[in-house]
Fold this protein.
Amino acid sequence: MGLSRQLENPVEKLRKSLVSPKSGFGQNTLEKSFFWNNYISASGENSFTREGFCACEKAFAEHKQNISRLILALAPDNIAILGAGYLNDIPLADLLEAGRTVYLMDWQEQAPKVGVSRLLLRKDQQNNYNCLFCKMSTGAEFCRNFTGEFKSEGVCTAFEPLQDPFVTCKHYEPAVEPKFVKADITGGVAGSFAAKIEKQIKSCKTAKDAFIKAIACTENYHYSPIPIEDDSMDLVTSSMILSQFDFEPYTYFSTLLEQHFTREELIKHESKLIPLMEKLRTRLFTLQAETHVRETHRIVKKDGKARVYLSAELFRSYPGTDNFFLVQDMSIALQTLDKYFYFKFDECLGGKALSKSELGQGVSINQCYCLVPKALTGCK
Ligand SMILES: C[S@@+](CC[C@H](N)C(=O)[O-])C[C@H]1O[C@@H](n2cnc3c(N)ncnc32)[C@H](O)[C@@H]1O
């Protein structure tokens, strides 16, 4: 979830945000390499704990229900799940249907595969395992090791249970469905920034220089579209993604900072660095939100029926109090959404456009919308 910049006083804010929240991990993994791709895949491996899964699953349960209701109402043929992650908020069983095309997209290649694997098995009333994919009429399209012959009613002869770190089938191997796609859902903004700054930071003499270069790196980017055709999706989800744009790729930059400059130096110059940090984070957030929303608009059908499900953190509580603040820059993200979409507050949301969740310290109030694309021209 996005670390809110308003949570801390300026000094704490700088210390926490200048210096990567993942610094423990960064020191282990990044000393040898300064590349974004390694960073992204290592960060996926690090969040791979049973407790982490459970906490996220509970926090995201409401979105899962909303998306379920939408699938039922729309009966979509083509679905894109943007930022699928570990599928904590994705009702996998409802998505699966022979002939339906489902894209699970994330820049962490392994996360959606782990997510699917984790949701594969259920136990019936007799305590027997049932595998979602073995039960499909086209099981071989979903698992390479599906044999087509059954060990028991719910699992094929290849089935072997695995208990750790979560219950799954040892022989599940992704096949052609659902479609796992490794892609940057900000249309290249995040990836471009990371690629440029990891080269340019090497020639920076001071941390201030690094910030100035980083801000300049946001001025243009190499557009790499989400690999899905225009006007082709009946349902697109962007669930708990916007808040991530405040977090990455800024955290990657702060990890690089830590490797090039000492913590003492960063703290010593904090009064000069804080405004630069604010400027950089706002630029990165705004640009990513704009391209993500524009890409989402591009891929969804403009037939009046297709929908986008969007959820994001809107307010967050000050730790230990029941006072909430507006998540920084969320007003900009809302204006961007309004530019491309109409907001719908219909039954699919279970009557609630705001939902509450607890993850980490404090409480989040999340906004949930169904969006209908406006008919715009020339907005690619
Ligand atoms: C908070 S999770 C969303 C919830 C997710 N369905 C889950 O259950 O984990 C955000 C996901 O978005 C992905 N993400 C963030 N920025 C991205 C980007 N620019 N391109 C692709 N994926 C991105 C992260 O890797 C992460 O898996």
